[in-house]
Amino acid sequence: MGDTGGLSHIYTKNQYNYRHSPAICSFVLRIGGRSLIWVEGEKDHKRMRSLIAPAFSSDNVREMHTDIYHVATALQTRIANKIHASSMSSICVNIIDYTTRVTMDIISRVAFGHDFNAVGDAPNAIKITNLWRAHSEMAREHSAFIAMLVLGLFPSITSLPLPTLQAQATVTNTIRNLAKDIVTNSQVDNKGNGKDLLSLLLKANTLQHESKRCEMPEIYDHILTFLYVVIHVISAVAATVVPF
Fold first, then answer.
1. Percentage of residues in the chain with pLDDT exceeding 90?
2. What span, in angstroms and rounded, lies between the C-alpha atoms of 148 and 144?
3. What is the number of structural domains in the chain?
4. Are the beta carbons of 99 and 236 closer than 8 angstroms?
5. The CATH number of the domain where 196 resides is what?
6. Is the pLDDT of residue 30 over 50?
7. How far apart are CA 96 and CA 77, in angstroms?
């Protein structure tokens, strides 16, 4: 993974020549559905990219500062209140937990126009973070490392009721149900004329041309990918960096 020339060859110059292994396909499908990180083939990949990329144009990214500032301020207030409420001379703050919550709130606001209020301990957000935590703890066990090696050799094992796989499925199903609620609320509010990701996806859902239309199950999977995979990766990075 340290060979930049090799990475460029695979991921930039010949990205469509290297397909996911059966084990990876099964894993990605389980945690992110049939979204951008799952799709293969130049035609389907470019179609999905054309749907998602406009939501993250330079102009849109600049306009995200309001939501980012709002969430950052909410976190600052919460930590400050926790410090002031403590009678001790010093307190220990789990910044990794807050990093997950902040990331969830920012992504849900800028991409879907929805506020999970994870920083404020909203029930649905806490449910997701607790599931993530349990899943992450299982993934850090030595048996999980061995399991990944075995899955690479025997992909069919993913169909077995293993605890780690069941934990992934629980998180996925929970977020997918929330995704359906987010889409339903957005449809009630006549969302679709905005520049955020969900608005673009809902607009694509109304297109008549089948090759360009984005069906509802795909929209749910895009939301799932951003709320599960992206936040999970950021949390993992934070857990690695923070102790140092």
1. 4
2. 6
3. 1
4. no
5. 1.10.630.10
6. yes
7. 17
